[in-house]
Design goal:
Three copies of one chain form a homotrimer. By secondary structure, chain A is of the alpha+beta class. Chain A contains eight helices and 14 strands.
């Protein structure tokens, strides 16, 4: 063999000028949910809803078996869009209209498509712009139980490769994707009460009062495990796993260290909230909007709180109700010497400041005690 | 929506005054054993018994498939009792009469009940007392293969919430729980010898001699992985996963750092002992008594030893025998300058002291070479 | 019970004088591939080939389901040989003629045998010698889908227990093991094109040009997770997991810290190369030779490159071709003050040196665009 004469280094992902209005990406890979993936993530988040713990409980409620929690559905679906949409992103700006459909079980295969809804160059920085996309995740494509499991939009701040390149600026309408949370039918003759001891006793629909803010009790310290968790999701963005890249230019990267993939605090906050608001949910219906407000690093301890925003009936389903909430994530950082703290930042032990890391407008469908306990 | 007006922080778990003699807890959650849970824990412990490694070996011995090792059965069952029994505990004092019953397979769902046998306030400290409980774990409740998989008692030192509160002091008798180790029948015509190369050649019943102490060869260094392992078990006690809580009051917590959940060294010591005493066991019959004698932290390396206490026949089963042992776990710590060490502490390399962390009286049912090799 | 009178510490593994020409080891344990093992390792390596991600894609190509990637087949098989062959090794010198056969699926049980081909004492060091072995891994022994999944040779530098002991020096011929990569038949009527968006668009057989060197884009920082990963493989060698042993004699161990099991960078380099060379492979055919050239530690970031050595047709299979490559792994280390770097070591950012850690001659069977896209 002759010596290699040509050295190749592929550039992955798209830059701002590569996105075109109305363009559709059919993302690579797809992902089958194994029991390994299911357990790694479900348990990492400390979720307590027995639908994701106890197969007999899930079946008795009308599901086929253990139910993949919404945070994990989101992570499996979202991560498939990273290479095409946000490999070259500076920041993920906003989650919009994130809706859930069919339940996901172990063995299901998830595949995702994304349509480009908008491209907008920055008015102040010629190297940046915002891409607005709509993604839809289906399970078991081409098989008889094919179904939409999730659809969402997001806005991402993406780098240009060439400052001078032309950008396909504009906005097109979102597709109308039929994606409503599937609920197992209420079986009038079923003995739901015999299962009631398995979930929390004080998290039925009747228990929530708008205007309440619940500070969830538990915190969870993150470790370098985030590198592996992120790889498990097929999110291979280098800022989450390549310390050598960071060490060469620490000032270019926030905190000078590996940043934890935003999907991790997203799903962890959902889990930390579970004993207080999610234990008797049949599912999450929609995340109207959400965003990350500060970075998270190995060593940080994550906490969460939920504001109860409102309650309403669900048509045709007297056994459940819709709970509108705001999920908030935070961590505590050492306060600087003499730093004057106000507002939320001051809600911290002496010497610390509270930093909000995540917020999500979230609606859950919650069982009523009258029908289940 | 109006601004939240009411901030809520739930307190989980019971305090000394909340326990009542004869009271029964039906614990929340339950847990289905997935292949993810099975592999994470079985391999973490470094167990070598092929019943938990090799499905064809397990089936040829009369099991339905890979057998969940006793340490993992214990962890899955025990952890379900934490929130109700020991979330507000100062220390787990003793495991008592821990007996195994039906085998547990991947796909089985474990649920647990606990009865309060005794409550006793401390005579010296008005803030503390001891709760004595009996727990029983069943699999597949309500299904045709429902069975008891484990029953045990434990004593826990629990905090009072209100020093002045009345305590339901006393002791009631333990329930008589039928829980005997299920053993697959010995099949006279089966070619067990064809499988003999798959397990250790020197760990048959005939190989053990009472009066022997086996220092198990392998050690295993613990890392911060313990945070995740503990979460996988649904044990959400904050002293195992909330570093921020520790950092605020390091002096209040042993070692000023996250303490490793006792179930981790429990199962790890079982695993480390496996190549020397457990490779040809069909199961663990009983842990008569056991306790943790020192805390374990990330960075510590765990070692184990087994004393062979006795041997006896098992009625109606000439193919196996019962081996009575004492399992001991230890770690090494830097000795203090000029520290004079004696006894077990002195069994250490120069500059170190040996610290016992765990002890367990343990009976195994072990195959005889005469019948299997 | 009397106090223990006899303390036993078993020595595991063989020393140079224990190996005999033509001797066969039937290794202990065996290992059933669970979904937990599958996901932990497949995702750790960052492999992107949908055969290991997407069950419908795998089935549409003629496999029974998710396909265990070659790196994981190798790790599961190789690790079973460690206790008998290399527990007392100083170094693994070379992998030779490593060939793959039947595909491995979740649920398959792998068992391994090893034959001693050669024993050669060192001419310069009376404490050392080289053992040459041939190992073969079978799945589902005794069942109707029994098949050889892998066969390979390796040379290992092994310690003597007794410098003066006689060694069975010599060499015997390797067995002729029939082990050819199984390929699913090409189905003329199948709509492979409908799946083409799921794998990379530029990694078909037609896309590779001999003489090219591809620097794979992604790097992956290793953490102390390697301790757990190694245990998951049943490789219990103490240099990978017993920090206390290292701390007692740091100078005796390379780097004075736990060394990462060579199988980890082996499989990680395969994974890192996947988006550029493996995304459209139906399997790896052979690793002609391979070796580790420098140790890897927690904190190191692993990178990989692939040289395209050659291409050729495969008899009777116009739909695929054989791609001959050299896979290279490297890391970057801080350069010493004033160190003059040359050759490969100089291919590094300022202040660093490039250190090759691994190399493997590797042939893949790759789909042709003409038939699949």
């Amino acid at each position: 063999m002759s010596q290699p004469v040509r050295v190749v280094r592929k550039i992955t992902g798209n830059h701002l000028e590569d996105f075109h209005l109305g363009q559709t990406f059919r993302h690579k890979g797809g992902k089958t949910v194994t029991e390994g993936l299911f357990t790694t993530f479900t348990e990492f988040t400390m979720t307590t809803n027995p639908l994701a713990k106890n197969a007999r409980y899930a079946r008795a409620h009308g599901f086929q078996g253990l139910v993949v929690p919404p945070g994990l559905v989101m992570l499996v679906a979202f991560s498939q869009t990273v290479e095409d949409v946000s490999e070259n992103a500076r920041a993920n700006l906003e989650y919009i209209d994130m809706r859930f459909g069919a339940p996901v079980y172990v063995g299901d295969t998830i595949e995702v498509e994304t349509k480009v809804l908008g491209v907008k160059p920055s008015s102040s920085n010629p190297k940046l712009g915002v891409v607005h996309v709509q993604s839809t995740a289906r399970k078991n494509v081409g098989e008889k139980d094919q179904a939409i499991v999730m659809t969402w939009q997001r806005k991402v701040q993406v780098w240009k490769k060439d400052d001078a390149a032309k950008v396909d600026e504009g906005e097109v309408p979102a597709d109308d994707i039929a994606c409503e949370l599937w609920l197992p039918p209420y079986q009038a003759g079923a003995d739901y009460k015999a299962l009631a001891h398995l979930s929390g006793a004080d998290t039925y629909f009747e228990d929530f009062e708008p205007g309440t803010k619940i500070e969830h009790w538990r915190g969870r310290t993150m470790t370098t495990e985030h590198i592996h968790l992120t790889a498990v999701l097929d999110n291979t963005s280098q800022v989450h796993c390549n310390q050598f890249m960071i060490d060469q230019n620490p000032k270019q990267y926030v905190g000078g260290q590996l940043i934890i993939f935003g999907g991790i605090p997203f799903t962890l906050c959902l889990g930390l909230s579970c004993p207080d608001v999610g234990d008797n949910a049949l599912g999450d219906r929609i995340y109207t909007t959400g965003r990350h407000t500060a970075p998270l690093f190995a060593g940080d301890t994550v906490f969460a709180a939920t504001e109860i925003l409102g309650k309403r009936d669900l048509d045709g389903r007297p056994d459940v109700g819709v709970l509108a909430t705001r999920l908030l994530g935070h961590k505590f950082e050492k306060a600087k010497d003499g730093e004057a703290l106000s507002g939320e930042a001051a809600e911290a032990p002496a010497g610390f400041r509270k930093t909000r890391i995540f917020e999500l407008e979230r609606e859950l469908v919650v069982k009523r005690r009258s029908h289940y306990a």
